[in-house]
């Protein structure tokens, strides 16, 4: 594996984790949204990650390297939280309100995992950069 492939894999990981953080931020900002354009409360979103081949000449020779790609952003179909709040304008006739299926603890845990994965990919890029600089020094 050459250093460009390594950078490509880490860069794809950085992009995927940034996208996860964007979706987590959207979930957190809509944690109290009870009415959306589609009708009903906000549905939590998740990022589905997959792999994608890193295109290089080595692919032809059989060494398939894979990076990370965002396959889709999907909605969580878990049930909404039901709370009794008869004074809320979106409450049903019995006074119950459907709130988004976003859990603050789950989103914070996901945010920490995405941050750590982002940091690991950034550290890999920095290490690759240092190796390239050392290799250039040897060549002098």
Concise synopsis of the structure shown:
The protein has 140 residues and is an alpha+beta fold.
Write the layout of secondary structure elements.
Blueprint: H1 3-29, E1 45-53, H2 57-61, E2 66-75, E3 81-84, E4 96-99, H3 104-138
Antiparallel strand pairs: 1-2, 3-4
Helix pairs in contact: 1-3
Task: Give structural notes.
The structure is a single chain. The chain contains 3 helices and 4 strands; from the N terminus they run H-E-H-E-E-E-H. By secondary structure, the chain is α+β, with helices and mostly antiparallel strands. It has one domain. The strands form 2 sheets. Strands 1-2 form a two-stranded antiparallel ribbon. Strands 3-4 form a two-stranded antiparallel ribbon. Helix 1 packs antiparallel against helix 3. The longest helix is centred in the C-terminal third of the chain and has 35 residues. The radius of gyration is 22 Å and the shape is elongated. The two termini are 23 Å apart. The mean pLDDT is 88.
Average per-residue pLDDT, rounded, comes to 88
Tell me about the largest β-sheet: 2 strands, antiparallel
Determine Rg (CA atoms, Å): 22 Å
- As residue ranges, the low-confidence spans are none
């Amino acid at each position: 594996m050459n250093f460009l492939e390594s950078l490509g894999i880490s860069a794809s990981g950085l992009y995927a984790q940034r996208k996860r953080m964007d979706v987590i931020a959207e979930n957190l900002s809509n944690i109290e949204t009870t009415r959306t354009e589609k009708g009903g409360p906000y549905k939590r979103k998740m990022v589905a990650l997959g792999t994608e081949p890193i295109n290089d000449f080595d692919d032809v020779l059989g060494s398939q390297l894979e990076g990370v790609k965002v396959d889709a952003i999907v909605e969580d179909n878990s049930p909404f939280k039901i709370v009794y709040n008869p004074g809320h304008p979106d409450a049903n006739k019995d006074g119950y309100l459907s709130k988004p299926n976003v859990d603050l603890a789950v989103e914070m845990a996901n945010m920490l995992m995405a941050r750590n994965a982002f940091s690991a990919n950034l550290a890999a890029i920095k290490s690759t950069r240092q190796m390239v600089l050392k290799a250039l020094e040897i060549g002098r």
